[in-house]
Amino acid sequence: xxxxxxxxxxxxxxxxxxxxxxxxxxxxxxxxxxxxxxxxxxxxxxxxxxxxxxxxxxxxxxxxxxxxxxxxxxxxxxxxxxxxxxxxxx
Length: 90
Known about the structure:
The chain is mainly alpha-helical. The protein is 51% helix and 0% strand. The protein contains 4 helices and no strands. The protein is globular, with a radius of gyration of 13 Å. It starts with a helix and ends with a helix.
């Protein structure tokens, strides 16, 4: 599993999260109110919806068990739930 994640990452340069909107995908260093977090996550997920590498991004985050941010349209909690469902299905 780790070997695959460390292989080809060329998809990352095509991610729509790069650049001016990158701050939407990770929580700020200061305290964030629930409404602010939900608004930020909604905007980030809207970008993910049209991203050409959404599937690759999500698979990468699941493989490396990325603990922070929105990857492939899923939050940290949603990725943990997805990973648990994948494990249960095996």
